[in-house]
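[Meeting: bench + compute handoff]

Bench side (C.D.) handed over the final construct sequence. Compute side (W.E.) agreed to return the predicted structure before the next meeting so the bench team could plan truncations. Sequence as handed over:
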Amino acid sequence: MSAPIKSFACTIPELAQYAHDCFQPEDLILAEIRERAVQEKLPNIHVGRMDGLHLEVLVRATGAKKAVEIGSLAGYSGVCIARALPPDGHLHAFELYEKNARVCAETFQRAGYSSKITIHQGVALENLKHIENQGPFDLIFLDADKHNYPAYLSWAEQHLRVGGTLIADNTFAWGLILQNTFDTESQRRDAEGVLQFNAKVAKNAIWRATILPTGEGLTVAVKIASRS
């Protein structure tokens, strides 16, 4: 008789509250970013509080010095990454919208990380080419348009070093990957992008990957070989 499969994701609210109370993931600097984003009327789609802590710990664990973030919003995740980088580390933050990039700049200045972060405003797939000569990179974090996750993965395959780490948020796609019908074309494209991304990192021999069962899914992959 086979052993029962243990639950993969915690769905007990009391345990989630325990984790927040125990690990205290959000300090005053991060809380202020959320509050200022509300004042600026930005969408409330920052990484979750525990996910921000996951991100910081993963960056520290990898020892990353050269990092890339695609999708910055108000700078919450950027601060989580920057505080984990060594003194000579640097983050390239890519943000599509001009208003968001302005809020990011204020966030990084207030948090004391302006010298460690370069903001690239505009379409990431067009602007990424401007930093390719500074690679290979140690860590890449994806939290932008989900339908382009496969394209960002292709870029990472070329410009992340062997041994480097790729992290992608929202890789449960808010449950959309379980649906056969979608309310909008955008939902369908996002779900398909996430499905393609997860399948490629799971099955491509240059990656060793897993998905952490956070509230929205956090895929973590290590590049273990050069691009074939």
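W.E. noted at the follow-up: The helical segments are 13-23, 28-39, 49-62, 76-82, 98-111, 124-127, 149-159, 185-203. C.D. will use this when planning the next construct.
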